[in-house]
Amino acid sequence: MPRNAADGRGRAGLVRPGGKTPAAALRARKTLFALLGGLGLFLYASCSGQITGQLAQDTSGTLQIQAGLEPNIISLINTLRSLGPAGTRQGPILDAAAFNSALQAAPGVKSAVLRNNGQERIAGTVSISRIGDLFLAGNGFIRYEGSPGAPSGKLSIHLDRATGFRILPLISSEAVDYLSALMAPVATGEALSKKEYLELVSSVYGEDIAAEIAAAGIGARISVPGAISSVKGGTFSGREARFDIPLLDILVLEAPLDYEIAW
């Protein structure tokens, strides 16, 4: 049975990572939605974003990030924030300072300088010390093939429900709570199709929220230190690869997402 927003009942058998039930996640929404959507770095519910990356020959790099929430999700978050304690009702919905703190502690990140452009948007730069260490060194998320300074190389990114679950706490300590409140399979682990997920969101939050999630996406433009010979999951020109990723694909991960750049 779909979860009812009024009584907090969960879908049968659904338990969040960490052992908490959806009902607990639903109660947590009143205090945890302050940062919802800043996961737009990779995942953000009803968030659209743009990532521009540059990879250097020594495998260091930078990510220029812009992310923002869509109107209906902003309205939903503000409503939920109004139900929580007074301290959760003020300040930006996307808290750049909180994301800076979490990202700076993540593997492979040298620094994070994000800023708020209003309450619902963030922008700034994340500096990477070594691309192969980013977030999950040796755990199958990012793989770099080649030697620092070499004229050729290959960068591969793999995202499935297992790697998605491990990445979430590195982006924000409460990421699992936020996305569990939106019942996103990347956080709950529930095996839903994209169609089933949108139907579930629509039944709990309404069709407008589901439509925004379905329409949102992340655009990525990645420059590498050599002429690109092939790209998987996108297009390329010269040294720049381009990827346009539907947000729904990331939230649900009905199938693993694989991207690759070779040069």
Folded structure, characterized:
The protein is of the alpha+beta class and 263 residues long. The chain has one domain (22-262). 31% of the residues lie in helices and 27% in strands. The strands form 2 sheets. It has a 7-stranded mixed sheet with strand order 3-4-2-1-7-10-9. A 4-stranded antiparallel sheet has the order 5-6-11-8. Strand 5 and strand 6 form a beta hairpin. Helix 1 (22-32) crosses helix 5 (175-181). The chain is globular.
Short account of what is shown:
With 263 residues, this protein is α+β, with helices and mostly antiparallel strands.
Helix amount, in percent? 25-40%
Radius of gyration: 18 Å
Sum up the overall morphology in one term.
Answer: globular
Number of strands: 11
Given the structure, what is the number of helices?
9
Query: How many structural domains does the protein architecture include?
Result: 1
> What profile does the largest beta sheet have?
7 strands, mixed
**Which regions are unreliable across 5 or more consecutive residues at pLDDT < 50?**
1-46
Percentage of residues in DSSP E strands: 25-35%
Question: What is the overall pLDDT average?
Answer: 76
Going across the biggest sheet, name each strand in turn.
3-4-2-1-7-10-9
Termini gap: 49 Å
Q: What's the quaternary structure here?
A: single chain
Query: What is the element string, with H for helices and E for strands?
Result: HEEHHEEEEHHHHHEEEEHE
SS class: alpha+beta
Secondary structure layout plus pairing:
Elements: H1 22-32, E1 47-55, E2 61-69, H2 71-83, H3 96-104, E3 109-116, E4 121-128, E5 142-145, E6 154-159, H4 161-171, H5 175-181, H6 185-188, H7 194-205, H8 207-215, E7 217-223, E8 230-232, E9 235-237, E10 240-246, H9 247-252, E11 257-262
Parallel strand pairs: 1-7
Antiparallel strand pairs: 1-2, 2-4, 3-4, 5-6, 6-11, 7-10, 8-11, 9-10
Helix pairs in contact: 1-2, 1-5, 7-8
